[in-house]
Amino acid sequence: MRRRTLTSFLPILAWLPGYDRQAMTNDSIAGLIVAIMLVPQGMAYALLAGLPPEVGLYASIVPLVFYGLLGSSRALAVGPVAIVSLMVATTLGEIAESGSVGYVSGAVLLAFLSGAILLGMGLARLGFLVNFLSHPVISGFSSAAALVIGFSQLKHLLGFDIPRSHLITETIAHAVTHISDLNVATFVIALISISILFFFKGRLAAWLASAGVAGGVADALAKTGPLVAVLVTTLLVWLLGLNQSSGVKVVADIPAGLPPLSVPDLDFALVRQLLPSALLISLVGFLESVSVAKSLASKRRQKLDANQELIALGAANIGASFTGGYPVTGGFSRSLVNFTAGAVTPMASIITAGLVALTVALLTPLLYFLPNATLAAIIMVAVANLIDVKTFREAWVYNKADAASLVATFLVALTLGIEMGIVAGALLSIALYLWRTSRPHMAEVGRVGNTEHFRNVLRHKVQTHPEVLAIRVDESLYFANTAFLEDDVLARVADHPEIKHLLLIMSAVNFIDASALETLQTLSERLRDAGVTMNMAEVKGPVMDRLELVSFRDEMGAGKIYLSTHNAMQNLTAKSEPKAA
Amino acid sequence: MRRRTLTSFLPILAWLPGYDRQAMTNDSIAGLIVAIMLVPQGMAYALLAGLPPEVGLYASIVPLVFYGLLGSSRALAVGPVAIVSLMVATTLGEIAESGSVGYVSGAVLLAFLSGAILLGMGLARLGFLVNFLSHPVISGFSSAAALVIGFSQLKHLLGFDIPRSHLITETIAHAVTHISDLNVATFVIALISISILFFFKGRLAAWLASAGVAGGVADALAKTGPLVAVLVTTLLVWLLGLNQSSGVKVVADIPAGLPPLSVPDLDFALVRQLLPSALLISLVGFLESVSVAKSLASKRRQKLDANQELIALGAANIGASFTGGYPVTGGFSRSLVNFTAGAVTPMASIITAGLVALTVALLTPLLYFLPNATLAAIIMVAVANLIDVKTFREAWVYNKADAASLVATFLVALTLGIEMGIVAGALLSIALYLWRTSRPHMAEVGRVGNTEHFRNVLRHKVQTHPEVLAIRVDESLYFANTAFLEDDVLARVADHPEIKHLLLIMSAVNFIDASALETLQTLSERLRDAGVTMNMAEVKGPVMDRLELVSFRDEMGAGKIYLSTHNAMQNLTAKSEPKAA
């Protein structure tokens, strides 16, 4: 355990004293670029969550400042993100009509509950819980979420209403059968936006580089895709009056001024109803945040404190709930942009927050003609990255059980809802792990040539002895596998009527719980009744310590515990001849 | 996998062809002794389950025959048992009034559902599921159940009504505050019964032996305690007319004749309501049965097939449900009596069933004056054995986590109900296991003297090398501990700025899942960036096979995989001097 200091609770104390002009310049540039990205994204994700666009902007101010003060990551960019927005939409879709007052106050309450949960988990040091979501489960979940998110935006792209459904097939069926309702102008705007976004994302950097533009500048320019798409399509709508003439839906009036102070409505029944979803939103949000923060920290050899991250994200969400926002977390792509744009301290986030606040206070009239289709296009292009076939392909080759939990998570998420998907995936991966450890690999071993090494008789040409059965137990012994151990050992002994000694090689046994201890005691007795001694070798220090506590040695009768397998075999086979395996 | 033959599905084929007069004599004696024990016990447990006494007798006929035909244990005695009876009482207490028609038909339905679940589990080969109940959880559960069962009989002992409560404290409080309602005659009968039972259980065998009676006969006589208690107290009540004069409650009229054919009422709503309890009853019943069957089989070096046991117990319960019985399983004490009385085949059980059938058909009038207090005394003395302090004491010394799950199971079972206790205990023990494996023990190792052995630097006087950090990873690597591994290794590398090579000793790593593989790839890259190579030694065959599937060796850069630690250290330290640790 590392000592907790004041600095670990307030990471700002680590960087603020040495803050200089150079750092300020770097952070300012990064802060500006992230703000340019965040304004359209914030509105787009609010739309995805079924909330008015300004809620996404409100969630991009105070939470960033709170995270900047408390977070241990130097480059994490906090704010609305796609998956959490989708989860907010799924949760609130069950309690209120999208856009209604109840819906917005539900979002505020979700932010507050998530914040409280994250803060609580941080103070209780429960950051480790997130480790129980395996990579394949996260991959299956992300792919499914990306598909659900993508298809949820179809209505904005096509310009006609499609009833919300958690089944993609229903969404597609509705879209196809109602394709005559297509709003052509809206669809064209969406295609223009998508083209701009893909161009900036793919070709532009290469093209600028070949044109002789410096790498850093080219990269920065490549990140302005969403802003350019917003500018181009907003101008188009404004100049051609498409919102009036062709029914293109636009963002329209956004209330001007800084975020309102709000107080979450702690209605007990509602809290109870939202709590399970808030817990999942917290876990998923924390997971996304901590993954990106970890990878950025290691790139610069900085340390990341998972529990401090929980506290900082908790504070950010509580901040969101008191300023009309909705649940936030550290976003993957935005943080990467922040990092590559040169952010060296959380000051970059604070600058971003200031610029978003400025936008909200002064520039909302400029967003009046921004088409919803553009925001939908931004979301679709952003989530396309989340569809992850590579992890499945690799898991399929490497370990079918991992591939199975990935597919199960994906399918459950698509058919029964994404929250069910992550729960089912987590439970399945734990169940598969328990199943595997409940049937340990056990290998009969023999001596390799004249060395002191002993290896599996089935894999290597080794020497065994007729009177000694040496079995390496390849798993810690605990309640779920003690019955298997007992049955397997007794069956092997029954198959070798000539043996006089059983040697259990414990090099891979990291723990023996009380159930397994009892089984070993029984096994030793049963073997004794059959005229076989039970011996052990290579028992690890921590395991031996516990066995000594209960004087296990005394219960082994004529059996002994040896330091090494070599040692044990020398003693046990002193009077017999080796046979070739 | 062993081949499944017709004999494994119908174990009777294994013993019936060679059945002889000697076996018949042995089985007849054992069958008679068990029947003498079973008649009062069956009625007592029915009483505990809140059912009329004849239901306990009906459950002691057909189920025994079915188990005899299908079971793989030669000496298991199936029938009503205490814990399952208690669970039936708890379950049905919520849906109907004790003794009502709905209550009895609920019990029949529970038997049918348990039977179907057991049969289904057997056919699906799910017998392993029961391994996930650890010994400490079972111990805590049994102790709590014994207390609840014991106190539930208090009203029969004291002769006045005490409202059913799952809280022992409430039962005691009610008994103490209403002690003036004590029925003295009933209480005296209970004390006489308890004295007889304890005398037969404790002193008698020793006393007979010292009087020169042969051991086998003495043991058999010692088992007749319940029968003697029944005879003595029934005579007392009849001769003194205590049921009329002093209000001593007696069994009274039992319908004469063989068990009625009944058809379980498959009301969908009721099935749904009873299903979770039926599942728990099946699991607990199977657990009790398989534990005793296993210990008896191993005493005679016979094999027990857990899945065949599920099928046989399933059939037994379905048999119970069609003949007016309630859930049954293999009982601990009765099976032990059957075994020690000399049962060599399931024919003993079939003989027992015949004798119970005879009793039901002809002898029920003799049971009219049998006092309930005697049956309660039989239950209390039987369950006293289940209170298990020894396991707690041992677990406390050996492993606090096991002790904690024992205590948690015990307390939850006592306060929230025994079914909740077993669920909470199972979940807690799994959680504690996952928690432990999520924080693996990792040891820096060095060379012991001039040997090829490497041991923990903190425990042994060993030699290390300044440029090589050798870490033994004491756990399989999977999603829940990859983050810990990565953090721990990187922190150790950061603490040793002089090292050039990291050596991970994988002798205790029995598996690397896809998440851990990804972490090892990342770790290898990060170490390479820091100028450190990542090497491995003693990777096991099955683990190496998988790593080869994804060409992991190629991703290790300059790092290598060595057969042994000795080998690896020789190569990695070829140019440097050892230092003493």
State the main characteristics.
homodimer, 581 residues, alpha/beta, Transcription Regulator spoIIAA, two-stranded antiparallel sheet, 62% helix
Provide an overview of this structure.
Chains A, B: It is found in: Membrane. Chains A, B: Residues 458-572 form the STAS domain. Chains A, B: The chain crosses the membrane at residues 30-52, 64-89, 101-121, 128-151, 182-200, 220-240, 310-329, 341-362, 369-387, 407-435. The structure is a homodimer of 581-residue chains. By secondary structure, the first copy, chain A, is of the alpha/beta class. Chain A has two domains: 6-405, no CATH class; 441-580, 2-Layer Sandwich (Transcription Regulator spoIIAA). Chain A has 27 helices and ten strands. In chain A, the strands form three sheets. A six-stranded mixed β-sheet of chain A has the order 4-3-6-7-8-9. In chain A, strand 3 and strand 4 (454-456) form a beta hairpin. At the A-B interface, helix 8, helix 20, helix 21, helix 22 and helix 23 of A face helix 8, helix 20, helix 21, helix 22 and helix 23 of B.
Outline the biggest β-sheet of chain A: 6 strands, mixed
Q: Helical segment tally of chain A?
A: 27
Structural class based on helices, strands and sheet pairing of chain A = alpha/beta
Q: Looking at the chains present, what oligomeric state does this protein adopt?
A: homodimer
Number of domains of chain A: 2
- CA-atom Rg of chain A in angstroms: 30 Å
**Morphology of chain A:** elongated
Query: Order of strands side by side in the largest beta sheet of chain A?
Result: 4-3-6-7-8-9
Please state the average pLDDT score of chain A. 88
Which stretches of chain A are poorly predicted, pLDDT < 50 over at least 5 residues? none
The greatest interface between two protein chains, and residues involved on each side, is: A-B, 67 and 66 residues
- End-to-end Cα distance of chain A: 49 Å
Strand fraction of chain A equals: 5-15%
- Number of extended strands of chain A: 10
- State the share of residues found in helices of chain A, binned by percent: 55-70%
